[in-house]
Each structure stands twice: as C-alpha cells, then as structure tokens.
Design a protein that fits this description.
- There is one protein chain.
- This protein is of the alpha+beta class.
- The chain has one domain: Sandwich (Jelly Rolls), CATH 2.60.120.10.
- Helices cover about 30% and strands about 25% of the residues.
- It contains 4 helices and 8 strands.
- A 4-stranded antiparallel beta sheet has the order 1-8-3-6. A 4-stranded antiparallel beta sheet has the order 2-7-4-5, with no helix packed on it.
- Helix 3 packs across helix 4.
- It is globular.
Length: about 170
C-alpha cells in the first residue's frame, strides 16, 4: 500500500529521475534523493568542436548528457587522443564529486549540437554535507567506476606490453 503522506512528483520530475537513474553515479538513489539535485541542475547547449572543459581545469561540475556526443581526450604532446566517446545517458566530469581536483582529460563536443545538464561542484558538496547517505552511495559508484577504469588500463597495458611503463602510474 502506498504511503498517503509521501511526496508525489510531476511527470517532468519522474522523467528526470528515470534519466538520472540510468547514469552510473545516480543509479542507486531513490526518488527523494534524486529530487535534491533537481534545483541545482541547469541546462547548457553546445555546438560541434566546443570544449566543455580542458585538462587541468578545476573540477567545477558534473555533466549529464541529454543529447549529443562528447569525446574525452588526453593531450599527447601536440595531439589529442580520444580515450572515450560518450553519448546520451552518460556522465563525465566525475572527479567533481571529489574536493579540490583538476580535470584529467579535455571534454570536446563531437556532434552538431549537445545538450548537457550541469550540476555544480559546490551544489554536490552541499548535498553531500546534508545527506551522508547520498554521498556514500555516490562515492561507492565512483569507486566502482574507477575500479572498472583501472581494470581496463591494466588489460590495455598487458595487450601492449613494452610501450609504456605502468610503474610510472604508481610513483
């Protein structure tokens, strides 16, 4: 039986919750927890070849892709190498969930247009301070994300043995 005192959400909010729960960092949050993020989000539109942020910039926001594609690139001397291409329903700028971090990659729009939902770092931190359960769930998702990336890195290293020194990563 449904609790008659529980908050009800309008169709737009329910649609946003469904979208957010499809994204790794939000998938374990309940509706009332997701609702905390709604007032903090704003929409930004980008065009092809626009940079969302550069490597080494301060990590000031988490981005959710509503429409379009984004390439995450790393700088290799005078070139950029795409390390991942993201599309609708994915997030990037994940280190904005942590405090005092800088971007590790450049995010570049590769579709004609992109529509991103932006959640500022300060708003995320305010939610974390006032709701430790949300922080715990999102930090667990972030740890899982980094663990998966480490596994990919090690697999890539094994497959290309000798081309780079993995030891440098741990020094």
């Amino acid at each position: 039986m449904r609790n008659p005192f529980s908050k009800t959400y309008d169709p737009r909010e329910l649609s946003m919750f469904e979208f957010m729960q499809g994204i790794k960092f939000f998938e374990t949050l309940k509706q009332h927890e997701l609702a905390r993020f709604l007032p903090t989000m704003h929409e930004r539109k980008y065009v092809r070849d626009e940079v969302v942020f550069f490597s080494k910039d301060p990590s000031q926001a988490l981005y959710l892709i509503r429409r379009g594609t984004i390439d995450l690139t790393i700088d290799l001397r005078d070139n950029f190498e795409t390390i991942m291409q993201l599309k609708r329903g994915e997030a990037f700028g994940e280190n904005s969930l942590l405090e005092n971090t800088k971007r590790t990659y450049t995010a570049l729009v590769t579709s004609d247009e992109a529509e991103l939902l932006v959640i500022p770092h300060f708003a995320i931190q305010e939610i974390f301070v006032s709701n430790p359960k949300i922080k715990a769930k999102m930090m667990a998702a972030l740890a899982e994300y980094f663990n998966t990336n480490n596994q990919r890195l090690f697999r890539s290293y094994r497959e290309s043995f000798g081309f780079f020194s993995l030891r440098q990563m741990f020094e």
